[in-house]
Write a structure and sequence with these properties.
Belongs to the AHA1 family. The chain is 37% helix and 27% strand. With 218 residues, it is α+β, with helices and mostly antiparallel strands.
């Protein structure tokens, strides 16, 4: 297939290089964009684009990437949009070492702030839970001093999202600092992305208050 007559070749889209895309699928970004243009894919949804690639791209992951890249270059993707919805990430650095930050996040007081007071279940790998405010989910991964990964669903949402809460220690041995991050995936709408970004930023601010109160004795 002939490439489009362009001044600059596209080197990367959807965090995937043109070289890798060609190696894995036989076409680079310019060629896939031309291929999709010829099928008038600009008016198609993400799912429709993915489906149109089924006979030509064996890997479902690369079909998703090509669709994301095409929508990106056409200006059809909104900030934070991925194939499974929208996602956001927020982080904050705290003046305590990783071990102490993890103790705060996994303590009853810390959990009540960022997750909520439990009315059902417990925070343990493979266990489902529900909070006083109607948030339900299942803890899929719990790795001490590292991260939680869980299904997370408010009462008024139709489907679950994926929430990962991570504590990261400073690489400098002399530093007693750590980062707490919330990464929220599979949000259904752009409005949910904006709302959840504000929500998790507020949770980090609330955590900062209790960490500030404890930091003198840590």
């Amino acid at each position: 297939m002939a490439k489009r007559d362009t001044l600059f070749q596209i080197e990367e889209l959807a965090k995937l290089s043109a070289k890798t895309l060609r190696d894995k699928t036989g076409k680079d970004w310019d060629e896939w964009i031309l291929w999709l243009d010829m099928r008038e894919s600009e008016e198609s949804t993400h799912k429709e684009i993915v489906a149109s690639l089924a006979d030509d791209v064996e890997s479902a992951w690369y079909r998703q990437k090509i669709a994301l890249g095409y929508r990106e270059v056409k200006g059809l993707r909104e900030p934070g949009e991925v194939g499974s919805g929208y996602e956001i990430g927020v982080t904050k650095t705290f003046p305590i070492p990783l071990r102490k930050a993890w103790e705060v996040m996994s303590s009853e007081e810390g959990l009540s702030i960022w997750l909520g007071d439990l009315t059902k279940g417990r925070i343990s790998q493979g266990v489902s839970f529900k909070t006083k405010h109607g948030i339900s989910g299942t803890v899929n991964v719990l790795e001490a001093n590292s991260h939680f990964r869980m299904a997370w669903k408010p009462a008024n949402w139709r489907n679950s999202s994926t929430l990962q809460v991570r504590v990261i220690g400073s690489k400098a041995k002399s530093s007693n600092k750590s980062v707490i991050s919330f990464h929220h995936e599979q949000l259904p709408r752009a409005a949910d992305r904006a709302a959840m970004k504000k929500y998790w930023e507020e949770k980090l601010s609330q955590l900062a208050e209790i960490i500030k109160g404890k930091s003198g004795s840590l």
